[in-house]
Each structure stands twice: as C-alpha cells, then as structure tokens.
TrEMBL record, chain A:
The chain crosses the membrane at residues 175-197, 217-236, 248-269, 284-306. Residues 47-160 are annotated as: Disordered. Coiled coil: none annotated. Belongs to the Vang family. It is found in: Cell membrane. It is a multi-pass membrane protein. This is Vang-like protein. Residues 83-101 have a biased composition (Basic residues). Residues 140-152 have a biased composition (Low complexity). Residues 102-111, 126-136 have a biased composition (Basic and acidic residues). GO terms for cellular component: plasma membrane. The keyword Acyltransferase does not apply. Keywords: Cell membrane, Membrane, Transmembrane, Transmembrane helix.
TrEMBL record, chain B:
Keywords: Acetylation, Cell membrane, Cytoplasm, Membrane, Nucleus, Phosphoprotein, Wnt signaling pathway. It is a peripheral membrane protein. SUPFAM superfamilies: PDZ domain-like. It comes from Perca flavescens (American yellow perch). This is Tax1-binding protein 3. The lineage of its organism: Eukaryota, Metazoa, Chordata, Craniata, Vertebrata. Residues 15-112 form the PDZ domain. One of its GO terms (molecular function) is protein kinase binding. One of its GO terms (cellular component) is basolateral plasma membrane. It comes from the Eukaryota. Its main location: membrane. GO terms for biological process: cell-cell adhesion; establishment or maintenance of epithelial cell apical/basal polarity; neurotransmitter receptor transport postsynaptic membrane to endosome; neurotransmitter receptor transport, endosome to postsynaptic membrane; receptor clustering; regulation of signal transduction; Wnt signaling pathway. Transmembrane segments: none annotated. Signal peptide: none annotated. It is found in: Cell membrane; Cytoplasm; Nucleus.
Length: 594, 128
C-alpha cells in the first residue's frame, strides 16, 4: 500500500523532486564524504519542501546516513544498469586485489580515476547510495552555473572544491587491497608448510619413515618457496600508484584463481589425508611440492598477464590538452581504458608543460570591439520572445559587413608582447650573470694564502644565495610578470633554487633554465597530496583499447582528450645489395665552345 | 631523330663548311656544343628524344664563322670532317672540332626543319 502510494506520488512530485535536486546541486557538493553528509543535513529542509505533495514521495528522498557513503561506490549510469557490475558488486569484497574499495575514490586526494557516463555533471559523488535509489536521477541533473541569484558563484565553487581536494582523508584506504592480497599470498605460501607439518603434529607415530627422497623433496620445496616469496614480494606487493574505477580484471582473475586453487587443494587434503590419517608421508610431501609448482606457474601467468602483455606497442594514443592545444603521441600496448588512462597521466606529468591559465586567451580588447560598435534599438516592438535572437542576428550581420581589423590588432599586440618579453629577458640574463660574478667558491687551501688584513667572510650556500639575490630580484620579478609565471615562483622558491644552483656549481644559464621555459607539470607539483582525475568515457572502462576510441581525463579546469589509433601493420621486405654494385657516373651537361 | 639501337640511322642532313677564324693563338669556330655519350641526355633542351646522346649545338656567337656558314642553334652534328659524331664522348667531339692543323671543318648537321622541308617538297611533287 505504501509502495503504491509512493509510486503514484513519485510521478506527481517529479517536478518538485526535480526542483529539489536542482537546489541540492546549487551548493558546492563533491569530493568528500563528510562535507557532503553535513551539507545534506543542512538541506534537510529542502528535501521536505520538494516532496510536499505526498509523504511517500518525500520520504523516498531521505538523506542517506553518513555510513552509506563510506562503503558504496560512485554512481554512474552505466555501471548501475549493466549486469556485469551488479553481480560483480556482490563479489567485490573478495575480488579486490590491488585496489581499494574503488568507487569512492573520488573523495580522496590521491590520484584516483573515477568513471562517469556522459551527460552527468562532474560533481556527482554525492549520488553514491544504495540500490534503492531513483534510477532517473542522472538525467535530470543540472550543471552548476554562476547566474542564479541565490547560488554560490563559480569562483567560490572552484575554490571550495579545491580546498576539499586538498584535505586528504583516509589515506589508509589505498593500502586495503594490497593488504588483502598480502594475506591471501601469505596463506598460499604457508599452505605447503601446513601440509607438511600437520601429519607430523597429529599422527607422528603412524607415519611411514621416509628417508632420502623426502629430504630431496624438502630441499626443492624450500627453494621453490623462497623463490616464490621473493618474486611475489618484488612484483606484486607494491603500493599501487593509482586507484581505478573498476576492478582490474586480470588481477582479480588471478586472485580468484589462486584462491580456488588453494581451496581445492585444502579440500582434497582434508578429505584424503586428514580424515583417513594417511601414513604415506612421501606422498604428502610430493603433494605439497606439486602445490608449490602450481603456484609458481600461476605466478608465471600473472607475470605474463600483468606485466608483459602490455609492453609490446599496439596503439598510438594522441593526447591533447583542451585549453591550449598541447599534444603528444604515445605508443602503448594492449591495455584496458583505465590502465591506459593511468599510463597517460604518468606521462602527462613529465611531458606536458605546466598549464598556465594566464596565457590563454586573446586579450578581450581585440575580440569585443566587434560587438560593441553597434547598438541596436527597439522601435516599439511588443513581443520580446525573439527579441534577443533578432538582435544578435543583426549585430552579427553588421559585424560581418564591417571591415574586420581584429587580426591586425592581434598581430601587432603579439609582436609587442614578444618584444617586451625579450627585452626583459635580456635584462634578466645580464643581471643574473653579474650577480653570479660576485661570489665564488671558497677553497680551503687559500686560507693561508689570503692576507690576514682582508679576511673574507665565509658564508654557507643559503646566505650566499640571499646575498646575490638582491641585485637580480627586480629583473627577475619583471620577467616573471611579463611571461605570467609569477604565480608559480615565489621569492622563497627562487632563493631555494639559487642556493641549489650555487651548491652544485651551476652557471647562470643553468640557473635560469627553470624560468626561461615552462617546465613539465611535475616540477611544480607538490607530491605529498594525490591528484584527482575523472575518466569520462562512452564505453566501459575495463574494455580493451581499439581503434577510434575517444576518452577524456578531466580535471577541474581543463581536460585531456585521448584518441586511439592502432599502429599500422608493417610488411617488411628484404633487398640485398652487393657492395660491388655501387657505381657512379657523372651527371653533367657541359658546354664547350669551339 | 629517334634511333633504334643496332639499326642504321637515316637522317636528312645539311652540309655546312666553316672556315676557322684565327683569334690570336686560337682557331675558333664560333659556337658551343653540348652532349655526348658520357653526358646526361635528359638535360638537353634541343633534342626530341631525351635518350639521344648526340652532340648538339647549344650556342652560336652572332657574327662568327659558324653563324655566317649557316649553323643554327639546336642542330645535331652527325659528322665532322668524316668523323662520326653520334656516338662520341664530349671530349672526343671537342677534339675533333678543334684540331690545330685544320683550317676548315665540314659538318653534316641535321635539324627537324630539314625533315619537314623534305617532306613538304616530296609531297608537293607527285611521284613519277
């Protein structure tokens, strides 16, 4: 009865629920469980107001308890509807290996990647809920804009979300799945030893004595276990550098395989050996040795699947940054989309120059001149519906007919800026060179040679840096301002860098290379915090790369668009050239007068 | 003036006799030659067949002995004083033309306009 009532009410209050959802989104939600749940409690009033027509309808949209957010994953339209993830969601506790409880990785500050179906807004982390939610929520969301009267403006939004990102909660969650994997691995390693030890402990007297062959088997068992342990530790027990939105198929497959394997061995052991108290100890030792062999082969399989398969290049990825068009091409092997995304981001941090928002657009003065030259007057028009379109159309038409001079202005402005930058760069280089001549490295053996009348003050690098910073500070500041880099280099960082260069005997050019060209993003990165990226893709992110795929990696203010093309199939032919066949003639057309 | 290698070549030729002019120490003829079997035939602007490696007249000094004798630019030298010029190197051709003990050279030259003139004249007279 209540469910029917709620169903009817859901239809009736759809509009109201839409409105309530819009209100919900107007506040800066995202990225942290605590803040979301606290904000939800703030909005308790809004929920009630929105579902006003029926108690059932409003009750449906209750704010979820805070604990809900911690376990469940990010909602994405694709994952909820596909059966693949629904069944896997149940088994996710057992199937994690090197990943944390994936989906709420959006809320952490590490380098996590979350999936998003297209059409959903960026900030949908608050939509993580249980299975009894409204499915159509994703289609009715609106994007936060800064134009509504009672909403937070866009700059506040970015600032707040940046603050939320900076706080890094729950670092230990990153290590949860390696811990699980370690437990399972340890269990698998201890199993052969247990197989050997249990008969000895339980029915030692009844065991048939087993001499040299057993000892040989013991030795081989010991070494194989050692090798297994070392290689597992080397290859697999590393803290992951990225958390992926969906589980890593190969890893979970292997984990399941290991678990199944060990479980079936234990089953067999329990039934055949422990029950009837088997006395043939040599057989038991052989059985344990076969388990270790099988584990070694599984490890070989893991090595091939996880480490080797993606090494041979098969695809070429073109990565373009949307804000300024920097692009790079990379060759990768057979990977799934999420793994390819992680790989691309690794390369991004060291290859792409840092994103400088100040360098982007044409100066407004050039672009806006077109539109401001004409003013459109309404001569008593009554209907205002097509007013704006008519107005803009006339303005566009008028602007098109006008002679367009903005390209010349752009050209001259560019030339002017470049000249200014070059002048300041020249001043900077001269100032730095001059500053570096003021100090030199103090050799200890000169101490006796220098006259005692002019004792030179011996400084450590920090003081030396501060001493010579003063004459070049002004030139440096003007240059940084001209190239819009002043936000990336504070005075403290410049002095630190100067100290570093002095310590390592660098020349002024070496000191300046950091400022004359924008370096890779990694140089400016504070590595203590993680970085959050969002993977936007039209296909499930565990599918393999294939031709023509496009996915993008989004951050708050820019994104990277990745296009996949396969590498061409190469037909290599052979041609043998005898070295004696290299002969030459003169190609002349000489003219002789007779 | 295309030829089939191995087959005898037929061409309509004009007989030109040039008197060498003494200029100081040298005897000059007043024209320049290009071509030869050791040269690149593709760069020859005067030949129809770009595989023709014969000797061609590339320049004529105006008012010189060759000009007076009727040699024209673009002519192909077939014989010089009886010596064949169709299959010689550039240097051999130069030597044949600049022998110091000869005052006069008798050339057999061919050009396309000769062929056309003969065809025209043959066409205007019906065969008898």
């Amino acid at each position: 009865m209540r469910s029917v009532f709620s169903l009817l009410d859901r239809k009736a209050s759809k509009i109201d629920s839409l409105r309530s959802k819009v209100d919900l989104l107007r506040l800066p939600l995202a990225l942290s469980t605590k803040s979301i749940s606290s904000r939800k409690s703030q909005l308790g009033v809004v929920w009630e107001k929105g579902g006003g027509s029926g108690a059932g309808g409003a009750r449906k949209h209750r704010p979820p308890p805070a604990s809900d957010m911690d376990n469940e994953s990010t909602y994405s339209g694709y994952s909820y509807k596909s059966s693949h993830s629904r069944s896997s969601r149940k088994h996710r506790d057992r199937r994690d290996r090197h990943r944390s409880k994936s989906r709420d990785s959006t809320i952490r500050g590490d380098k996590s990647v979350t999936i998003q179906a297209p059409g959903e807004p960026l900030l949908d982390a608050e939509s993580t809920r249980g299975d009894d939610r409204d499915d159509n929520w994703g289609e009715t969301t609106t994007v936060v804009t800064g134009t509504s009267v009672d909403s937070v403006s866009n700059e506040d939004l970015t600032r707040m979300s940046k603050d939320l990102e900076d706080s890094s909660p729950l670092e230990c969650r990153r290590y949860l799945s390696p811990a699980l994997a370690a437990v399972l691995g340890l269990f698998a390693l201890i199993t052969p030893l247990a197989f050997l030890a249990l008969p000895q402990l339980l029915w030692r007297d009844e065991l048939a004595p087993c001499g040299t062959p057993c000892e040989g088997l013991y030795i081989s068992l010991a070494f194989k276990l050692l090798i297994l342990f070392i290689s597992t530790w080397t290859l697999f027990l590393r803290p992951p550098r990225a958390t992926l939105p969906r589980f890593f198929i190969f890893r979970s497959l292997l984990l399941a395989l290991v678990f199944l394997f060990v479980a079936s061995y234990w089953l067999f052991y329990g039934v055949r050996v422990l029950e009837p108290r088997e006395t043939d100890y040599r057989g038991i030792v052989g059985y344990a040795a076969s388990l270790v062999d099988a584990l070694l082969f599984i490890q070989y399989l893991a090595l091939v699947l996880l480490e080797v398969r993606h090494l041979q290049p098969a695809f070429c990825l073109k990565v373009v940054r949307t804000t300024d068009g920097h692009s790079r091409f990379y060759n990768v092997g057979h990977l799934s989309i999420q793994r390819a995304a992680v790989w691309v981001l690794d390369q991004y941090y060291s290859d792409f120059p840092v994103y400088n928002p100040a360098l982007l657009n044409l100066p407004k003065s050039i672009l806006s001149k077109k539109m401001s030259a004409f003013k459109v007057y309404n001569l008593g028009e009554e209907n205002s519906t097509n007013n704006s379109t008519g107005q803009s159309r006339t303005m566009i038409a008028a602007a098109a007919r006008r002679r367009d001079n903005s390209h010349t202005e752009y050209y001259y402005e560019e030339a002017e800026v470049e000249r200014r930058v070059r002048k300041r760069k020249a001043r900077l280089v001269v100032a730095v060179e001059e500053a570096f001549t003021h100090i030199k490295r103090h050799q200890d053996e000169e101490a006796t040679a220098s006259s005692p009348k002019h004792p030179r003050e011996v400084m450590d690098p920090r003081e030396a840096a501060q001493a010579i910073f003063a004459p070049m500070a002004r030139a440096m500041q003007k240059y940084l301002r001209a190239t819009r880099q002043q936000s990336y280099h504070s005075m403290e960082s410049i002095i630190n860098h100067l100290q570093f260069c002095i310590t390592h005997n660098m020349t002024p050019q070496a000191f300046l290379e950091r400022y004359l060209s924008p370096g890779p993003t990694l140089q400016y990165l504070d590595t203590s915090r993680g970085r959050q990226w969002t993977l936007v893709s039209e296909e499930p992110v565990t599918s393999a790369l294939h031709q023509g795929q496009v996915f993008s990696l989004r951050r708050l203010d820019f994104s990277l668009v990745v296009t996949v093309t396969p590498l061409p199939f190469l037909r290599l032919g052979e041609e043998f050239i005898d070295p004696k066949r290299h002969k030459f003639v003169m190609k002349l057309q000489s003219e002789t007068s007779v | 003036m295309s030829f089939v290698p191995g087959q005898p070549l037929t061409a309509v030729v004009q007989r030109i006799q040039i008197q060498k002019l003494r200029q100081g120490e040298n005897l000059i003829l007043g024209f320049s030659i290009g071509g030869g079997i050791d040269q690149d035939p593709g760069q020859n602007p005067f030949s129809d067949d770009k595989t023709d490696k014969g000797i061609y007249v590339t320049r004529i000094t105006p008012g010189g002995p060759a000009d007076a004798a009727g040699l024209r630019m673009g002519d192909k030298l077939m014989q010089v004083n009886g010596w064949d010029m169709t299959m010689v190197t550039h240097d051999q051709a130069r030597k044949r033309l600049t022998k110091k003990n000869e005052d006069v050279v008798r050339l057999l030259v061919t050009r396309k306009s000769l062929e056309e003139a003969v065809k025209q004249s043959m066409g205007s007279f019906p065969r008898q």
